[in-house]
Specification:
about 230 residues; Rossmann fold; two-stranded antiparallel sheet; about 45% helix; EC 1.7.1.17; oxidoreductase; Flavodoxin_fold; oxidoreductase activity, acting on NAD(P)H, quinone or similar compound as acceptor; flavoprotein
């Protein structure tokens, strides 16, 4: 086969591959308002996003920065509003606003194929906006439901990636039980049927200052690899 024939054959094969590839809708959720120079989880978010975009040029990307969103605490007004709406009852103006806000984030989450969470471990847990956001999503009847055999989730078809940074080394003996960032998020989303999220963790960069840069660099390399495969 001549050179030009090979060239055009390869070009056609690449074009066919791109055309046949199924486009995914991906939600990227950032949960750190500190800049990348100061926050490892922000570096992880930016690295994963950049690498994923390069590897999946046709996918639809939605970015959600929880620190920039309107996320009032999930309490009585929202809970009552959602309940009344589901029962066909009349809502107050405040209840309707709160219920609509819950629906906004819930519908967005349910509409995507893949979700990427990037968050730090702060003060032994996750930042407050993430707790509020997850509370909005955890709606019985839409995200999960109760049965006599226990709850069943409705979001198990979604591919989920958890990116987490923690300054201490929770891989040490006796530390795992105190980790309430990755474990917390995993427990919550398992209620929704998401039981096998992928995870990339960078840890110990504050505990081992002499190896901090090496730990971060190795971790970001793992982030890139995960992004290509996701």
């Amino acid at each position: 086969m001549g050179f030009l024939s090979k060239l055009f054959r390869n070009k056609n094969q690449n074009t066919t591959t791109e055309e046949n590839r199924t486009m995914s809708k991906v939600l990227f959720i950032q949960v750190n308002d500190r800049p990348a120079e100061q926050a490892v989880s922000t570096k992880m978010y930016e690295t994963f996003l950049k690498t994923y975009k390069e590897a999946n040029r046709t996918d639809e990307i939605i970015e959600l920065d929880l620190f920039k969103e309107e996320l009032p605490y999930y309490g009585n007004t929202a809970m009552t509003g959602v309940y009344k709406r589901n029962q066909g009852l009349e809502l107050t103006t405040e209840e309707e606003k709160a219920a609509n806000l819950v629906d906004k984030y819930l519908d967005q989450f349910l509409s995507v194929d893949k979700v990427v969470f990037a968050f730090p471990l702060w003060n032994s847990t996750v930042p407050a906006p993430l707790i509020t956001y997850l509370s909005y999503l955890a709606q019985a009847g839409k995200m999960f439901n109760y049965t006599a055999e226990g709850p069943i989730g409705y979001a198990g078809d979604k591919k989920v990636m958890l990116l987490n940074a923690r300054g201490s080394d929770f891989a040490l003996e006796g530390m795992a039980a105190a980790e309430m960032a990755i474990n917390l998020v995993k427990n919550i989303i398992s209620l929704w049927g998401i039981t096998n999220p992928e995870t990339v963790v960078i840890e110990g960069h504050n505990q081992y200052p002499d190896r901090s840069q090496e730990i971060i660099a190795d971790g970001l390399e793992n982030v890139e690899k995960a992004a290509v495969k996701f």
